[in-house]
Amino acid sequence: MFFQIYHSAFLNFMKLVSAYFLRQNLHMDSTHSFTKYQNDLAGIARVIAHPARIAILQYLSAVHDASFDYILDDLELEPEALGVHLKELENSGFIRKIKQDEDFHYFIDTLSWNKCKEILMGFFKEVPKNNNRCD
């Protein structure tokens, strides 16, 4: 249920993104030159596109930092899947890890988090409100 809600929210987000680009008459092909902002926004969307990654980010936001084993126990993911998702989040800059005792602890990188938040909020401010009609 938890994942379904966030997956549905993400699909709605992607529909908004697609509709926005179509309204702007941008042709999305390999020859189109996208702006840094558009590439950054797409990168963020790609990283958070998986419900497991959203769950990991929410979990780390709530507990501040956690070891692999704690995340594994609480989110009940397969170890291999968790490793892949943590690595993707780490490579994208959403999270960082530090070695504590014999374990690595993961935590949200607040500077990257705030930058992503700024990009997403900026995008949603750009989309026209109450523009549900076709012209």
Automatic annotation (TrEMBL):
Q: What are the transmembrane regions?
A: none
Q: Entry's SMART domains?
A: HTH_ARSR
UniProt GO MF annotations? DNA-binding transcription factor activity
Q: SUPFAM superfamilies this protein is in? A: Winged helix' DNA-binding domain
- Domain HTH arsR-type stretches: 43-125
List the protein's name.
HTH arsR-type domain-containing protein
